[in-house]
Predict the 3D structure of the following.
Amino acid sequence: MTENEQQVAGLLLAAGGGRRLGGRPKALLEHRGRPLVEHAVGVLRAAGCTRVHVVLGAAAAVVRERAELGDCVLVENPEWAEGMGSSLRAGLDSLAGTGARAALVSLVDQPGIGPEAVTRVLGAYEDETSLVSAAYDGVRGHPVLFGAAHWAGIAATATGDRGARAYLKEHRGAIVLVECGDVAEPYDIDTTADLAHLE
């Protein structure tokens, strides 16, 4: 295990209720015969994240029951319906005091992003001031890595569905972009048409 892997925690946002999917929680969508949340955790683990925190919201009890999330730290976000911002805040809060110096944030509904992209972003981590983002043909996407020095600022501006967008815009000069377009596809599973991406 490299030093990076010990200092960077994986933070998976898996609380969404799947509004545009007829209210089917994204964590429970099936992919390769297992719940999507399990697949997403597997990607973080394969990339070297030994500590993984998973933020649950919609149908959290069912997710706990159906998905094998092993030794992940499960964080329930009672305010998940407010949007991704509240889940990001809950996740970062859960990392306070764990010794993690950075959080590698991924989204449960992006199964086209595999361990290769996560490994690249992880590899760009330097210290708690790091701000790293995967890029697809130069356009910023997920996963993103936030050094601990940024957590308070991100939490203060993470509202609604915007997550860290406002903070990243303000600090764009500090972001290290890591091109991942050759190893990953950053589509989201948002609508029923997107379900075709699942196997």
Remarks:
- Residues 84-95 form the longest helix (12 residues).
- The mean pLDDT is 94.
- Helices lie at 3-7, 36-46, 60-66, 84-95, 115-123, 151-157, 165-170.
